[in-house]
Amino acid sequence: MEMKHHYIMLWKTNIKNQYSYEIIELLISKGSNLNSKNQQKQTPLHFALENNLPNEIIKLLISQGSDINSKNNQKQTPLHIALKKKIPKEIIELLISSKSINSKNNKNKLPLQIALKKEYSKEIIELLVSGKSINSKNNKNELPLHIALKKNKSNEIVELLISKGSDINTKNNQDEIPLHIALENKYPKEIIQYLIAKGSDVNSKNKKNETPLHIAFRKKHSNEIKILLMRYFDIFHLQKTEITQPMIDLFPKIYSFNEDLNNFLKLDDFKDIEIKSNDGKKFKVHKQFLLIRLDNNEKFYQDLSMFAEENQKKLFN
């Protein structure tokens, strides 16, 4: 038998047999080509992982020169398979290379994306993160961060992905940015604050025409989270029909108005509204330019001045 065909014997080996390790070791010693492929383009290493062979055999194949970057007919590297099969960390670490962590399978999935769906620990996730993988999309246009938030990953994994450079305003196929998903899955205030602080677009709309603020109300988040979003939210970015009564009810907790805001929002024209700041100053502000993104009075005045200058309109008297 030619040495290049010895790998066939590996498929024939009875994996239940207690002598499997010795048989495979013998075949390797006789010159079996560990990187030859079968009809499914599997190397012996692919096959061993797919069929849950003992870890000792997998380690043997790797130590004897199996190509950890080789792809089968589904474009899977051994690392893809190991992560799907929940192989122990010690094996996964042996399968990691700069090439394998950036390889996509035929479903456009990276090892990092598979690991996030399979509930791996932060330690494994950190090993799989790279400059390329962190913002790579799958077939649903999801980044690893979208997946992590959908799988209700721990705060520390979410923060890890963001700290490694994940784009926080990329939209998936449902036009959701990570902030939409975090609110949909009722993440705590700390994560919502973190996403906003990193620059999440609080005015972004998904395919249901929902902003993060709409989701916060629908999912019955705390008033603390709703008010946090409203402070950065351009309320007149919305159509009149998109402004809900619960939103209106929370406005007095942020601003002081000298007229009935509910009636004001029902108006179709661009009437001015008078706003009173905490220090007693009053401003008449054109409805079109009232921004709910106030951190302090000074910032609010700056916003009004900027829009007045750009639009050459008198916004207050």
UniProtKB/TrEMBL annotation:
<protein>
    <submittedName>
        <fullName>Ada2a-containing complex component 3 isoform d</fullName>
    </submittedName>
</protein>
<dbReference type="InterPro" id="IPR002110">
    <property type="entry name" value="Ankyrin_rpt"/>
</dbReference>
<keyword id="KW-0677">Repeat</keyword>
<dbReference type="GO" id="GO:0003723">
    <property type="term" value="F:RNA binding"/>
</dbReference>
<dbReference type="Pfam" id="PF12796">
    <property type="entry name" value="Ank_2"/>
</dbReference>
<feature type="repeat" description="ANK">
    <location>
        <begin position="174"/>
        <end position="207"/>
    </location>
</feature>
<feature type="repeat" description="ANK">
    <location>
        <begin position="40"/>
        <end position="73"/>
    </location>
</feature>
<dbReference type="GO" id="GO:0006396">
    <property type="term" value="P:RNA processing"/>
</dbReference>
<keyword id="KW-0040">ANK repeat</keyword>
<dbReference type="GO" id="GO:0004540">
    <property type="term" value="F:RNA nuclease activity"/>
</dbReference>
<dbReference type="InterPro" id="IPR036770">
    <property type="entry name" value="Ankyrin_rpt-contain_sf"/>
</dbReference>
<feature type="repeat" description="ANK">
    <location>
        <begin position="140"/>
        <end position="173"/>
    </location>
</feature>
